[in-house]
Design a protein that fits this description.
Radius of gyration: 27 Å
Number of strands: 20
Number of domains: 3
Structural class: alpha+beta
Distance between the termini: 33 Å
């Protein structure tokens, strides 16, 4: 079975917290020490067992043993990793993280990637956090990583570029395409290193179907009284349910009681033409006894903005709700069969190579029915029987 790592970033995330969480879940500190030695970095590494709130957690501590430069160029770190004796997987993942950070910094500062130099992210502890996390992923045999939306704090933080408002520009750039939530806490909840590790190596999503094997808590350096400053992870094996093809969808919902019902079919048609996966209108009884419709649009995440705009433009709603969901889907294929009246497509739904569902393409059946002037149900039944006969 495949191993999956789920990361709860709702309390914030940083590189040392991610490493601490994996160490707390059974990772081996010696593997990180070997990697640091392979990089030629002089540092003392510790995994301290601490309390954060009511929970036991591991605080991963990196103490440099040599004087650090003010900054390191991206090219310097790339050479350091490429010339090391790290495994190919750790090299690939570590470089992907640093490249993402470099591109984010280049965009924020308006400079070429090769001229990017890292301050905080180029420090020894950040390099060890990134490489160490990738080493622990490999040693624990993690195949997939899924993480929640990332919580960010408010206020400001002092950096090499002066005082910066939270979340800092680099975090915002790194989290492009990822969901951020406002924690309301007046401190940094997500560091650039933590954001880069998640957005580079993980996919966003809820806790997947799994059999938990280990739970890990990674502690942040601060220990506030108001909340447990930690990152939680779960290491588990995917269950059979997880072998179904899965993707992420968004459900857009609203209800209207002041729209001409004749407009509803055209609205649904517009939404489908714009890329909605499915749309439907449900008759409902609304406040004050008014009859109305509940409108639901199912769509891919990248079409949320455009379809929400169409709902506002073509209906009378004043608000649209959205909910992100995971769905399991069958593999889809088409089969063509010959009927006495012409060719008809058959929609097939497969799982593991086995046909689970089949249905004649309705529009094909309708066309053949009109052309031959015979009942639609006759064409439909014939096409379905021909499809089943072909599998016998």
């Amino acid at each position: 079975m495949k191993k999956v790592l789920w990361i709860d970033a709702s309390s914030g995330v940083a590189g040392d917290m991610l490493c601490g969480a994996l160490l707390n879940a059974g990772g081996d500190l010696e593997r990180i020490k070997e990697a640091v030695s392979a990089l030629g970095i002089q540092a003392d590494l510790r995994a301290d067992l601490v309390k954060r709130g009511a929970f036991a957690a591991t605080h991963f501590v990196v103490q440099p043993l040599e004087k650090e430069p003010d900054h390191r160029h991206f090219s310097t770190i790339r050479t350091l990793i490429e010339q090391s004796e790290l495994s190919p997987q750790v090299k690939k993942q570590s470089m992907a993280v640093f490249e993402r950070i470099a591109h984010a910094e280049a965009t924020v500062h308006g400079i070429p990637v090769e001229k990017v130099h890292f301050h905080e992210v180029g420090a020894v502890d950040s390099i060890v956090d990134i490489v160490g996390f990738c080493v622990l992923l490999e040693s624990l045999g993690i195949d997939d990583i899924i993480a929640t939306p990332i919580a960010v704090g408010t206020g400001s933080i002092q950096s090499a570029h002066g005082a910066l408002s939270l979340p800092v520009p680099a975090v915002l750039q790194l989290c492009t395409g990822w969901t951020l939530t406002q924690s309301g806490r007046n401190k940094e909840q997500c560091t650039p290193t933590g954001a880069a590790l998640l957005t580079t190596l993980a996919k966003e999503g809820p806790l997947p179907p799994m059999q938990p094997l280990a739970l890990g808590h990674g502690a942040g350096t601060r220990n506030p009284q108001t909340h447990a400053n930690l990152t939680r992870v779960v290491v588990g094996e995917k269950t059979n349910q997880a072998h179904w093809n899965q993707d992420e969808i968004v459900s857009l919902e609203c209800q209207v009681d002041d729209i001409n019902p004749e407009i509803i079919p055209e609205l649904l048609s517009i939404l489908i033409s714009a890329g909605a996966l499915d749309v439907f209108a449900t008759p409902i009884l609304m406040k004050k006894g008014r009859p109305g419709f509940a409108l639901t649009t199912i769509c891919p995440p990248d079409l949320v903005e455009s379809l929400r705009g169409l709902l506002f433009e073509h209906s009378s709603t004043l608000g649209v709700r959205q909910q992100t969901q995971m769905r399991s889907v069958l593999e889809r294929k088409h089969q063509r069969v010959q009927t006495p009246w012409g060719e008809c497509r058959i929609k097939l739904g497969l799982h593991g190579g086995k046909i689970i569902n089949r249905a004649p393409e309705f529009e094909d059946c309708k066309i053949l029915s009109k052309q031959a002037n015979i009942p639609l149900k006759t064409v439909y039944a014939w096409a379905l029987a021909e499809s089943i006969k072909g599998e016998a």
